[in-house]
């Protein structure tokens, strides 16, 4: 999933992605009711049809077939929270090919909660990334440093180097594959917190990460686009406009209230409209 260009005069990337994972917070009925409210937020913003702001929802596996029907024909993309890496004798896993059949176009891989509670390591994550890509699904690779160090001098560049290493291992050094990812930068310490990471810090990490990623595209003769990098971790309305150069938000708890999702969509639409006005397009 490649951005058309990294940033322009205003610093806003060409396309902004606004997504939400329900994790395991909602039951089946509750999730479908919530999804109908999210769908309403999307339907009531016809400007989304232009495709400069791309919304996506990631419910639990059992909700996916019904969700696929609910959002059909709308700009809302459907995602899954995890995937296996092969068809066959893998009890309890769900293959990317099955997810693709259900209309899933994005799959989270390597979320901090899966790394921490389910022992997902970089080898497993690399297999999942490859399998999802082979099935035509965009891997939403979740990366982020474990501990809070934004105040130290090397905080942002150190975090970017760590995240770059996570991405390198997830794609096995295949930077063409990396250009087809969406990256969710989620500092582990900011997930489930009361407030997101400091906006200036996030912007600095993403800027530094983009520089590291750009070195690979240049090595390939500029043939590769940079993947979008969105931010997650206690994200809420008011944050995105402060995140210069970041490609969107990955929301959690604060989008359980669908009105907040709508507010963030409005912020993203305003940012892309401002960018167009600045460019005179
Ligand atoms: O992990 C997240 C999104 O995947 C963020 O969750 P919270 O916004 O609830 O911290």
From TrEMBL:
GO molecular function: triose-phosphate isomerase activity
Enzyme class per UniProt: isomerase
InterPro entries, per database record: Aldolase_TIM, TIM_sf, Triosephosphate_isomerase
Reaction catalyzed: D-glyceraldehyde 3-phosphate = dihydroxyacetone phosphate
Pathway per the UniProt entry: Carbohydrate degradation; glycolysis; D-glyceraldehyde 3-phosphate from glycerone phosphate: step 1/1; Carbohydrate biosynthesis; gluconeogenesis
Subcellular localization: Cytoplasm
Entry EC number(s): 5.3.1.1
Record's keyword terms, sorted: Cytoplasm, Gluconeogenesis, Glycolysis, Isomerase
A family per Pfam: TIM
GO cellular component terms, semicolon-separated: cytosol
PANTHER family per record: TRIOSEPHOSPHATE ISOMERASE
Family (UniProt): Belongs to the triosephosphate isomerase family.
Quaternary structure, from the entry: Homodimer.
The protein, known as: Triosephosphate isomerase
Organism per entry: Pseudarthrobacter sulfonivorans
């Amino acid at each position: 999933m490649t951005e058309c260009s990294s940033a322009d005069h205003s610093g806003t990337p060409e396309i902004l992605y606004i997504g939400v994972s329900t994790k395991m917070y909602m039951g089946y009925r509750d999730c479908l009711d919530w999804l109908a409210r999210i769908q309403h937020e999307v339907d009531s913003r016809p400007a989304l049809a232009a495709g400069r702001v791309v919304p996506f929802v990631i419910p639990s596996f059992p909700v996916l077939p019904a969700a696929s029907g609910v959002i059909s024909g709308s700009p809302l993309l459907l995602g899954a929270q995890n995937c296996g890496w092969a068809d066959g004798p893998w009890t309890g896993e769900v293959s990317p090919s099955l997810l693709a059949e259900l209309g899933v176009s994005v799959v989270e891989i390597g979320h901090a909660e899966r790394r921490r509670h389910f022992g997902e390591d970089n080898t497993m994550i690399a297999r999942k990334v490859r399998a999802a890509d082979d099935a035509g699904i965009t891997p939403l690779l979740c990366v982020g440093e474990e501990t809070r160090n934004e105040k130290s001098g090397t905080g942002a560049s150190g975090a970017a180097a760590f995240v770059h290493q996570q991405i390198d291992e997830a794609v096995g050094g295949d930077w063409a594959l990396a250009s087809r990812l969406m990256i969710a930068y989620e500092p582990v310490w900011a997930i489930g917190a009361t407030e997101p990471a400091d906006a200036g810090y996030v912007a600095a990490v993403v800027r530094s990460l983009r520089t590291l990623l750009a070195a690979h595209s240049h090595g390939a003769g500029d043939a590769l686009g940079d993947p979008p990098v969105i931010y997650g971790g206690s994200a809420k309305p008011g944050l995105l406009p402060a995140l210069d150069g970041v490609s969107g938000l990955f929301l959690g708890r604060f989008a359980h209230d669908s009105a907040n999702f709508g507010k963030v969509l409005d912020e993203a639409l305003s940012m892309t409209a401002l960018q167009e006005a600045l460019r005179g397009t």
